[in-house]
Amino acid sequence: AQTVTQSQPEMSVQEAETVTLSCTYDTSESNYYLFWYKQPPSRQMILVIRQEAYKQQNATENRFSVNFQKAAKSFSLKISDSQLGDTAMYFCAPVLQAGNTGKLIFGQGTTLQVKP
Amino acid sequence: EAGVAQSPRYKIIEKRQSVAFWCNPISGHATLYWYQQILGQGPKLLIQFQNNGVVDDSQLPKDRFSAERLKGVDSTLKIQPAKLEDSAVYLCASSLVSGFIGTGYGYTFGSGTRLTVV
Predict the structure, then answer these.
(1) Which among A45, A95, A101 has CB closest to B55?
(2) Is B11 exposed, middle or buried (0-12, 13-18, 19+ CB in 10 A)?
(3) Exposed/middle/buried for residue B46 (C-beta within 10 Å: 0-12, 13-18, 19+)
């Protein structure tokens, strides 16, 4: 079974500090994609960062970066210089190959609160 | 470009009633997805369309849920009859390019419809 585990249901961080959200997943495939999505109270799902599994270099996007450990099937998200607008639910979501298309699977989510 | 449009934004119905949700994906996006997100959980894929054909509906409760995508553009998801456990947010998403590599560029989501069944 293909599963995604986010072991931290809730986290909080002070504004301007750094926080890391963890994610592990289970797949037997070698080629896939990994995403982190952000969902604020507005419910809009927003793509934060994307990683291709065949690339060893960790993706970065401004204040957001990932630590991708393929052998360990781990994909953590680091948010630097946290801002109040980062308050949201964060989902780790791999895209796994399903036939000739991809299937986006979500973890349970981590609720992040950034405190002033 | 315009985003993925969904309506209605909220819906309250009594159990055993029927309800329909509408989604208009980004123009030209070949693949369309419906997800169910129960409060406090991650979204679960219900059905995936590629153009107007169904790619995956393995997690769609077919005894009460149905979906169609006419002419490969907008889509409707229907529940009949609704149960209390159907209370959730229903998210629609689309991706431009079909195929595995295309989905690797990410999906664009609508704002969802929050359904409350009482």
Answers:
(1) A101
(2) middle
(3) buried
Q: What is the CA radius of gyration of chain B?
A: 14
Angstroms from A63 CA to nearest CA on chain B: 20
Is the Cβ–Cβ distance between A53 and A32 less than 8 Å? Answer: yes
pLDDT, one tens digit per residue, over A38-74 is 999 888 899 999 999 888 899 999 999 999 999 999 9
- What single string gives the DSSP state of each residue in A51-84? EETT--SPPEETTEEEEEETTTTEEEEEE-S--G
**First-to-final CA distance of chain B:** 37
CB contact at 8 A, A97 and B100 = yes
- Closest residue, chain B, to A53 (C-alpha): B104
